[in-house]
Design brief:
Protocatechuate 4,5-dioxygenase, Chain B; globular; alpha/beta; three-stranded mixed β-sheet; 23% strand
């Protein structure tokens, strides 16, 4: 019997009806103006934000614009995001075998998930996924950008870089697999201070540093694991977009920072 994880934040973080959601995604995509050089990138992994679409949607769209040319190639998405409501010490898989959004259902890659069985840092925890938005808000972007894909969703709590890297390594696959880490940057700073701090954080990510903390990025645990593995595998990191909620939604008194960053393997450039 199939178990569905229903949409928990549709109508809150993003539109709750398919027609409106599709229209918003289209509007966000056509407003993206990728740099000519970045447009040739073939990302193996992405860092994307996870706030409400009015705030972080334009930045997320800039990352997913790089994925659209690969819509017939990518068949598996490994999606990692921080827990906001139910803490876990390591990484949590859901009980469900499919996730639902207003755009339809995304099946989980049960064979890939099976390869994680026995890892001490991985647990099955339905509660950690039930109301978690950091993963869900990325699904409509993926549904819009890709033809058909299966999902490996991981809610990340206090796992260290090595523990996260080990999990991603098992799921790495080939060109059919995309790794997505969901993370915002600084929270509730004045615009000027946030701009400075987020630029420093992004510089550290591009240098593949592995010791970011929660003040720099709320998804730091998954992010540190990705950069550790990227360093080992010789990946290059590219800044695609860097803005904050003051740039996208107007209020500059207390903003949240957002970055879109793509990681590429040495030979993964489109010609």
């Amino acid at each position: 019997m199939s178990i569905t994880r229903p949409a928990a934040v549709a109508g809150l973080f993003y539109p709750g009806t398919a027609d409106t959601l599709q229209r918003v995604l289209h509007e966000l995509s056509v407003r993206v103006h990728p740099d000519a050089g970045l447009g040739a990138l073939r990302p193996k992994a992405l860092i994307v934000p996870h706030a409400g679409y009015i705030y972080s949607g334009p930045v997320a769209a800039s990352a997913y614009a790089l994925v659209r040319p690969l819509r017939a190639v990518i068949r598996r998405v490994v999606l990692l995001g921080p827990v906001h409501r139910v803490w876990v010490d390591g990484l949590a898989l859901p009980v469900a075998d499919q996730f639902e959004t207003p755009l339809g259902r995304v099946p989980l890659d049960t064979e890939a998930i099976e390869t994680l069985r026995g890892l001490p840092q991985v647990e099955v925890n339905a509660a950690a996924h039930a109301m978690e938005h950091s993963l869900e808000v990325n699904l409509p972007f993926l549904q819009d950008a890709l033809d058909r894909f299966e999902l490996v969703p991981l809610a990340v709590g206090g796992a260290g870089p090595q523990a996260v890297a080990e999990v991603i390594e098992r799921l790495w696959g080939g060109e059919e697999t995309l790794v997505v880490v969901s993370s915002d940057l600084s929270h509730y700073l004045p615009h000027a201070e946030a701009t400075r701090r987020d630029a420093e954080t992004v510089a550290r990510i591009l240098a593949l540093e592995t010791d970011l903390d929660g003040e720099e990025a709320c998804g730091c645990h998954a992010l540190n694991g990705l950069t550790l593995l990227a360093r080992r595998k010789g990946l290059s990191a590219h800044l695609v977009d860097l803005r904050n909620s003051g740039d996208t939604a107007g209020d500059k008194a207390r903003v949240v920072g957002y970055a879109a960053i793509a990681f590429t393997e040495a030979t993964h450039v489109r010609h």
